[in-house]
Design brief:
This protein has 277 residues and is α/β, with parallel strands linked by helices. The chain has eleven helices and five strands. It is globular and about 65 Å long.
Length: 277
């Protein structure tokens, strides 16, 4: 099926029509000029982002799960943001999950036809037992990806909250979700390459949403991530600094109490507040 020539994500960008004739520095400058407009476009969707944030907080507080669903670049961005939640905020890995068309293989290479497989979306969500207690955040720059639309249709059938992120106003995705987040970034530097401004907008939206949700769920004190999992040397060092900063303990004391607390920053802070060691 030919692509709709009216879809803004497929239009040619008049500011980059001559980009193939430019030198490296000029090409990079054009790309960065286009990227610089994305933040303002995302900020324009702040009311919808706030509503989505509230719905996700409610879902997780009630024991439900949050799924990011997408195909191609959108699916990879969704899966990557979900994967960061556990090490950053200490939330169990099954609470926030990424679902990508084509499965794990699609994280590192293109899986031909995966984005058009509507039945696969239903199967993927059924395998995860998506239910009315959960929330589905669907990502599609064009707003018309079959896999994503089928996933939203399944979410609505089972009564799950549905949130959509798209770059096309009045797209099928924007019309069918409970909370549409529409960020119009305009035509891409390379026509149709929505891994560029479209992908940047999706990344900004996801990391803003996931961070805001985790803050409201109490996984941060001040601006320090007290829920992090110290699973490597860098994070163990960071955990010591966080405990020391929040408790006033020396780094040596903080390290000792962390070891006694099994690496849990929150338990370490509670013990220090209670005068335990």
């Amino acid at each position: 099926m030919p692509r709709d020539p009216r879809r803004i994500t497929e239009q040619q960008n008049p500011r980059t029509r001559d980009i193939d004739s430019l030198g490296p520095a000029e090409i990079l400058e054009r790309i960065l000029d286009e990227d610089a407009s994305v933040a303002a476009a995302v900020r324009g969707a702040l009311p919808q982002l706030s509503e989505a944030c509230e719905r996700l907080i409610e879902t997780l507080r009630a024991g439900g799960r949050w799924f990011n669903l997408g195909a191609g670049t959108s699916g990879r961005i969704g899966a990557l943001d979900a994967a960061e939640i556990t090490p950053t905020f200490g939330v169990a890995a099954d609470r926030v999950q990424g679902v990508i068309a084509g499965g794990e293989l699609a994280m590192t290479r293109a899986v031909e036809g995966a984005e058009d497989d509507a039945d696969a979306a239903r199967r993927d969500l059924e395998a995860r037992q998506l239910c009315s207690a959960d929330a589905l955040l669907a990502l599609s720059a064009s707003g018309g990806t079959r896999y994503v639309l089928a996933g939203v249709a399944h979410a609505r059938r089972v009564g799950a909250v549905s949130i959509g992120v798209t770059c096309v106003p009045d797209s099928a995705l924007a019309r069918t979700v409970d909370v549409p987040i529409v960020v119009v970034v305009g035509p891409e530097v390379i026509a149709g390459s929505t891994r560029m401004k479209g992908g940047l907008a999706q990344k900004m939206i996801l990391h803003a949403l996931s961070t805001a949700v985790m803050i409201r769920l109490g996984r941060v004190r001040g601006n320090l991530m007290t829920g992090l999992s110290p699973v490597n040397a860098k994070l163990r060092e960071r955990a010591v600094l966080i405990v020391s900063e929040l408790s006033g303990a020396s780094p040596a004391e903080a390290q000792a109490i962390l070891e006694a607390a099994g690496g849990s920053i929150e338990i370490a802070l509670e013990r220090l507040a209670a005068g335990q060691n």
